[in-house]
Amino acid sequence: MDKPxxxxxxxxxxxxxxxxxxxLLSIPKLTIEQGAKIFIHGASGSGKSTLLNLLTGVLTPxxxxxxxxxxxxxxxxxxxxxxxxANHFGIIFxxxxxxxxxxxxxxxxxxxxxxxxxxxxxxxYKSDIHHQAMEILExxxxxxxxxxxxxxTELSTGQQQRIAAARALIGAPEIIIADEPTSALDADAxxxxxxxxxxxxxxxxxxxxxxxxxxxxxxxxxxxxxxxxLTSAHSS
Length: 236
Ligand SMILES: Nc1ncnc2c1ncn2[C@@H]1O[C@H](COP(=O)(O)OP(=O)(O)OP(=O)(O)O)[C@@H](O)[C@H]1O
Ligand SMILES: [Mg+2]
Hints:
alpha/beta, Rossmann fold, 5-stranded parallel sheet, 4-stranded antiparallel sheet, binds adenosine-5'-triphosphate
């Protein structure tokens, strides 16, 4: 069998917020293979969202380098980073960040209007992208015919979370980032949501990076990265 491709490579990474006297993150070396399901675990304020923002190029490392899909993102210009992110990342934000004045379907389609690469990937898979979005909604356990034209503001938190997941999954980006998307759900709903997410990332061999403070979720994943091991306190 072929060796799995490397998806994320971090080398000698240090991150310190401007004006702070201490490094928040220190990661000498980290490699994540394509298709892996990674759990980033740490308390509130430990730096999970900061790390995810470094991986997507929203933040720039203070020192060191990050490569995504064999491309260095550490010295890339902002405009290039924005299009790289739109092409290769599906992001489920901590607060979902759904657009309230758009319908469910319009929200899900949004990434395809920001990225020709993702649009053509979606069209390659199935020429009717609307139908494809309906299929994703169904796979995530939603009544797709009932929900697709509704407004975001009419939906429950659990429904909004699955719409946010559908928006991240459409067009099969190589990397799905999920920043604490389950904090508002009860234990059963959390596990159910993660199972649905796993089914979807398996179909496209996407890498899943999932951050949460809830250690009970760790056993579901291939590998756990405790934030304690990624902070400067640990490495000094
Ligand atoms: N824009 C910013 N400027 C300066 N410091 C920041 C900024 N954003 C976050 N921090 C600090 O960085 C640290 C890590 O924050 P981060 O949001 O990454 O934590 P987190 O693990 O995602 O927490 P939570 O579980 O509450 O989402 C915190 O001490 C926070 O105060
Ligand atoms: Mg956070």
